[in-house]
Amino acid sequence: MKVQRVKRRTATLAAAGMAAGALFAMAVPGTAEAQSGSRICGNYWKGYYNNGQEEVTWSRVIEVPKTDDSACARAIDRTDKVGNPPSEITKLGVTWGDRQRLSKKTCEWYSQDLLNAKYGDDVCLTMQRADNVFQVNGRTISQYWLK
Question: Cβ(124)–Cβ(111) under 8 Å?
């Protein structure tokens, strides 16, 4: 009888612990699950207008698994052209600098350091990770510019 009570108490405590953990996970904001194992790969360019006095940054990236070097390399290759910047940029008559590769950058670096948090603290929340090389080919490229 005593053993049965101990097992029941242990089961009750375990269930209470799991419920508390689930409530804590829902109540406390954190890093999105996909980002914890993700990295940003792609390219960005610095452009200049007004006779080289003002700068604009244009980036084209894809979120990939942080351990998948092949998917990152494919994302860099797929985003290697300036592409179609927004009309706000093209109307400025921007002269683009050399392509700068982004290889396995954290979302925090990409959002905070490159884009200066212009689009909010975490632009990666709107990205859908490409889990392999084949998904990189079909994934929509995330594009952001900073003026």
Answer: yes
Could you report the per-residue pLDDT of 80-132, keeping only the tens digit for each?
998 888 888 888 888 888 999 999 999 888 888 888 877 666 788 888 999 99
Query: Which strand ranges, in their side-by-side order, compose the sheet holding 142-146?
Result: 95-105, 38-49, 54-65, 142-146
pLDDT, tens only, 118-143: 766 678 888 899 999 999 999 999 99
The ranges assigned to domains in the chain are 1-30, 33-146
Instruction: Give exposure, 121-140, as e/b (b: 16+ Cβ within 10 Å).
Output: ebbbeebebbbeeeebeebe
Cβ contact 45:98 at 8 Å: yes
pTM of the predicted model as reported, rounded to 2 decimal places: 0.71
Largest CA distance in the chain: 87
Q: In Å, how far are 39, 55, 65, 91, 122 from 46, measured between CA atoms?
A: 21, 7, 26, 16, 21
Rounded to whole angstroms, the Cα distance separating 72 from 120 reads 24
Report the C-alpha gap between 58 and 143 in whole angstroms.
Answer: 7
